């Protein structure tokens, strides 16, 4: 246990893929991310437990697998409070800038100060969110107690066009990469407000994403969006709902035409990038996320290839700042040994798909090791079976389900041991008002 409590800057960046954060597939310009990696420990095989935001964040903040918390887009948000309650009792002041969603309201309900930003358009860092974060970090410098500042950043999830000066090849090959470059610019501004030696920085994502070339996204219509924004300024307010409906109709029409055209020109592997999360196979595009610890307590520059999971984040924080969490029924383990250069045992990572809005649980479950990815139907272990050899087939193009029955048997036995668990406490559901609001927000993000 350490004697000094560091400040904590905890950032989750929605929809950030690991292969676009670091490595040969990255084309974005990220001097500040590179600086943090050079002063920290970066896990390039970190696996999200689920390909959906709130369930995934639930795993991070509880160190438990999704089926144990049953946190979904509309249920059990307060179960993710454990981390924040415990660290507050440990002496930390708490601050945040997050979207105004029921989940973030729940986890920040006892914060010393919080800003919940409008979800009507999911503003980017360049549209004022970055300045809000900076203002809070400025305030944090003035307080005596150690602080934790948390923000969930939506710049990669929204399809709003980024400023033209950043949407150029200098900042990346695709607009997705250029958005990462823009995030990095703001990250540099955040770093100017903190002392790295006294601050533990944790940066990760809730899940990855299939789409990384937004210029080809079936629903990406920046010209229509710009025209719509101009029209809103000159249109009477009572006509706004009509304008929104017309915009949605045009976007839907464009989407159908683009998909029809793309199917004629792209391979199966290329078409896969237009899949939606929560449907079908749990490819690495939606599960591999960046995980970076930097600053306080991290004494070496290291790129770590060992597979780890979201559930490992909370116990690692404890190892770095001292024991503050009282729940011993967690699924994660501290990564401090491997950060310090020692070896740790390989552990399979449990994975599952996010439920569709009308469902209580996702269709697909599975597990990932450093060598194999295995997934199948949640309800029937004999249906929708996929097995990929990640060493020989990292792009997951060849399903070995009919060729490697012994491996599947072994993976299934491990999966059954992991899922041998029953929830004995009740569900907490959103109010009708919050349910309707949340469903509308998810519709804008493309989930409905």
Task: Report what the structure shows.
- This protein is of the alpha/beta class and 448 residues long.
- It folds into 2 domains: 7-210 and 281-347, Alkaline Phosphatase, subunit A (3-Layer(aba) Sandwich), CATH 3.40.720.10; 214-274, no CATH class.
- Helix content is 34%, strand content 16%.
- The chain contains 15 helices and 13 strands.
- It has helices at 31-38, 53-62, 66-69, 82-89, 102-107, 129-140, 175-191, 222-234, 240-265, 268-271, 284-287, 313-321, 336-339, 405-418, 432-444, and strands at residues 7-13, 40-47, 93-99, 113-117, 147-153, 199-204, 288-295, 302-304, 308-309, 349-352, 364-368, 372-377, 386-389.
- The strands form 2 sheets. Strands 1, 2, 3, 4, 5, 6, 7, 8 and 9 form a 9-stranded mixed beta sheet that branches. The protein has a 4-stranded antiparallel beta sheet with strand order 10-11-12-13, with helices on one face.
- α5 links the parallel β3 (93-99) and β4.
- α8 runs antiparallel to α9 (240-265).
- The longest helix is centred in the middle third of the chain and has 26 residues, at 240-265.
- The protein is globular, with a radius of gyration of 22 Å.
- The termini are far apart.
- The model has no long low-confidence stretch (mean pLDDT 85).
């Amino acid at each position: 246990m350490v004697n000094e409590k560091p400040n904590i800057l905890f950032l989750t960046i929605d929809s950030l893929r690991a292969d676009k954060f670091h490595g040969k597939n990255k084309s974005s310009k990220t001097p500040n991310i590179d600086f943090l990696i050079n002063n920290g420990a970066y896990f390039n095989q970190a696996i999200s437990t689920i390909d959906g935001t709130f369930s995934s964040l639930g795993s991070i903040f509880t160190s438990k697998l999704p089926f144990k918390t049953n946190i979904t887009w509309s249920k059990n948000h307060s179960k993710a409070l454990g981390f924040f309650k415990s660290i507050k009792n440990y002496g930390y002041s708490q601050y945040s800038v997050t979207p105004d969603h029921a989940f973030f309201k729940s986890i920040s309900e006892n914060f010393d100060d919080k800003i919940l930003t409008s979800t009507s358009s999911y503003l980017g860092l360049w549209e004022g969110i970055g300045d809000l974060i900076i203002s809070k970090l400025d305030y944090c410098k003035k307080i005596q107690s150690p602080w934790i500042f948390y923000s969930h950043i939506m710049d990669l999830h929204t399809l709003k066009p980024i400023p033209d000066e950043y949407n150029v090849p200098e900042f990346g090959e695709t607009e997705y990469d250029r958005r990462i470059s823009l995030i990095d610019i703001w990250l540099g501004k955040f770093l100017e407000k903190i002392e790295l030696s006294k601050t533990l920085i944790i940066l990760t994502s809730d899940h990855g994403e299939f789409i990384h070339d937004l210029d080809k996204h079936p629903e990406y219509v920046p010209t229509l969006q710009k025209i719509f924004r101009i029209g809103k300024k000159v249109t009477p307010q009572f006509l706004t709902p009509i304008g929104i409906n017309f915009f949605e109709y045009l976007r839907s029409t464009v989407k159908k035409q683009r998909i029809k055209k793309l199917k004629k020109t792209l391979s199966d592997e290329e078409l896969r990038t237009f899949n939606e999360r929560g449907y079908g196979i749990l490819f690495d595009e939606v599960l591999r996320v960046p995980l970076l610890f930097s600053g306080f307590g991290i004494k070496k520059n290291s790129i770590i290839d060992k597979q780890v999971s979201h559930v490992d984040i909370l116990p690692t924080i404890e190892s770095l700042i001292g024991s503050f969490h009282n729940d011993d029924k967690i699924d994660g383990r501290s990564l401090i040994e491997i950060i310090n250069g020692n070896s740790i045992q390989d552990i399979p990572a449990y994975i599952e798909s996010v439920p569709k809005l009308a469902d209580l649980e996702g269709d697909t479950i599975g597990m990932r090791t450093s060598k194999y990815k295995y997934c199948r139907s949640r309800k029937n272990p004999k249906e929708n079976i996929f097995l990929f050899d990640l060493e020989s087939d990292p792009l997951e193009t060849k399903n070995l389900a009919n060729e490697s029955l012994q491996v599947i048997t072994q993976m299934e036995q491990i999966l059954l041991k992991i899922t041998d668990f029953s929830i004995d406490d009740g569900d907490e559901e959103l109010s009708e008002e919050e349910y309707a609001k949340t469903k509308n927000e998810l519709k804008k993000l493309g989930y409905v």
